[in-house]
Amino acid sequence: MRVTEATMYQHTIDSANIALANEAKAQAQVSSGLRVQSPGDDPQAAAMLVRQRFNQAQITAIQNGTQSATDELNAADSALDGLNTVLARAQVLATQFGNDTYTETDRDAAASEIDGLIKQGMANLNTRFGSRYIFGGNKDSQAPFDDNGVYRGDSGVRQVEVAPGVYEDASVRADIMAVGTGGGVDILQTMKDLSTALRANDGDAIRTNIGNLTTACNQVSTARSQVGTSVNIFTSATNACAAQVSDAKRVIGELGDADVMDASSRLSLAQYALNATLTAAAKTLNISLIDLLNR
Amino acid sequence: MDLVSLLNNTANGLAAIQGRVATISNNIANASTPGYARQNANLAEGIPSALAGNRGFIGGGVILNNVTQSRDDFVEAQLPAAFSNSSSSTAESDALASVSTFNNGSAGDLTDALGTFYSSLTALAQNAGDSSLRQSTAQAAAWLAATFNRTSVALEQARTGTDSSIRGLVQQVNAALTQVGDLNRRISIIEASGSQPSDLLDQRHDLMDQISQLIGATQVPDAYGNISLVLPGGTTLLSASAAATLTMQADTANKGHLDIVFAPPDGSAPVVFGQGDLGGQIGGLLAARDGALGKASSDLDTLAFEFARTMNAQNRAGYTLDGNPGGDLFTAGATPSDAAAVIASNPALSTNPALIAAAQYANTVPGDGSNAQAMAATQSAVLSNGLDVQEGLAKIVADFGTASSNATDQANFDKTVLQNLQDSRQSTSGVSTDDEMVALMQAQHAFEAMAKVINATDDLLQALIALKS
Hints:
Number of domains of chain A: 2
Radius of gyration of chain A: 38 Å
Strand content of chain A: under 5%
Number of strands of chain A: 4
Strand order of the largest sheet of chain A: 1-2
Largest sheet of chain B: 4 strands, antiparallel
Largest interface: A-B, 63 and 68 residues
Order of helices and strands of chain B: HEEEEHHHHEEEEEEEHEHEHHHH
Distance between the termini of chain B: 23 Å
Number of domains of chain B: 3
Number of strands of chain B: 13
Mean pLDDT of chain A: 93
Helix content of chain B: 55-70%
Oligomer: heterodimer
Strand order of the largest sheet of chain B: 5-6-7-8
Number of helices of chain A: 8
Shape of chain B: rod-shaped
Distance between the termini of chain A: 29 Å
Largest sheet of chain A: 2 strands, antiparallel
CATH architecture of the largest domain in chain A: Up-down Bundle
Structural class of chain A: mainly alpha
């Protein structure tokens, strides 16, 4: 093929443009750390990145939820532990002062202690976590037990997502645990009855409440057991989410991030190619018959 | 042959060589002129003189027979399509590469905004009565709508940018068509007289190259020296000196983007070009505008519309913090058309986030977040396009990326084909100063030799004149 100066000039320009474009691309990858910068670089990876970033956001949200649920259930467990202590002391007092050897004065003093325990129990049942009362069911913006110990909450149970589309109970039904709906006893009412019986110096009535207090303790224990189970589930879910988020980050990195060594090598190669192109152009374009004739 | 005839022959030879030197000079001067094809001064033997008695002939020297252009018709026939293809795919590739709205690592992009919105709903579902969570969900909704708007605007701005480019290119096509029509007329007149108007042919070639690059027209020569220009869709842009005019008009069915209208030179009704009718840079820009960019814009509208519809339906299924039935969280118009551009969150949300219907029943407020949970779960719900939100967005990105990648690959391929053909054209038609210098030296030596002949002939004549005296 006959080669003219115009061909050589055009080849030089084209080659330099390609080398410069390669250099710019490699440089952008090295400086940004991203292999896939625009979807055109790798369409399938770009689509996968959208899915993975979406997935990461979803799992992170679930992880935040399970962590928050764990914290709240731990708070519920602390409150139930407090309630349990209150009931245990009430049981001791009921058993002790159910004995008719105690005087009216002794029982009156015990009734005063029971009144104090009722307040403690109410404080435990009106526990707040953040802005919500955790034993109010869906009615969580006000204290679930009023000053008279009457339950104002409902039977709502909050469910929290532990995996996409999978939900787990994250609250205690205080209407069952504390009020005794469905066959249990009303804990606060039982304690009030005990207090009344103590003040009335009514040994039979006091002894009747011992059994009710045992039932109340069982109700609290059952609730704590459920809380414990839920905490385990949420803790596992939190750990699983952390692993999934970590996986998603790794996949995002593998799909979209530049291999720094590879990108640096390609940058060096592109610079070498550009240098070679310009050097070759400088040498070849300099050779002309005109120059030789002038010597 | 007498000495005077010998002098005449030599003088003719000198004139021929001068013509050759002039051609070489012209070649060198035009070595970098666009469209110029190397010219050859073709020498031929002069008419010989017969010797008496059938003893043969004495040569008649040299004459300049003609000056012709060096063009390879095989290569020239392939170049318009190569110009068209390369310009088209390069324009499409460049237009798509300039759109960065789907770039990876763009913080605050649609993937981020959707993820943040659904995450805020998941958090709200856990504590539906919390005013700060409601406020952040309302803000996430507003941010998501704004992100849909920004993404849509970015795509539409890219499409509008192609309109501006196309407008300028169409003006160039019209100007070039008029010039080629004029050149057709002048060339056919000169060629009818048997001459080859090299300079006009060069100008026409250069203009035709430009038109091929601009709009993808290929050339069809006729027997009278005219070149007709035909578009990829079969429309004749130029016939002899009758050039069509291209104009532009807004297409309301295509978000007001510009259509190219063909006004035939015979005055018949104007025709609106469709996609595929045009090639070259204009065809490539149209392919980018109404192809990948148009599809991404339209798919984004569908996604925004379906997202708003699904979210509104779920919000209406629940109850607000005040125990009232939920309303619409988003407005996105009555049809998917332009939905991504106009989608907005309910403005009342920013001041009254209680309007988010997080509860499933009126009597389960404020703590019930079941409906917020259901709203968050819509991210996995299959929309009318058969995909969920995540897959819908991933598909938009994948489709756009594939179109961009294919256009880039095609542009590289077309560029290589064009470069090879241009090398072939240069091989035949290009000017090599080395070639011309050698030819110049050859002509110079021939000229010097002929001058010697004149000198010798002069000496002979002087000798004869001296004999007589």
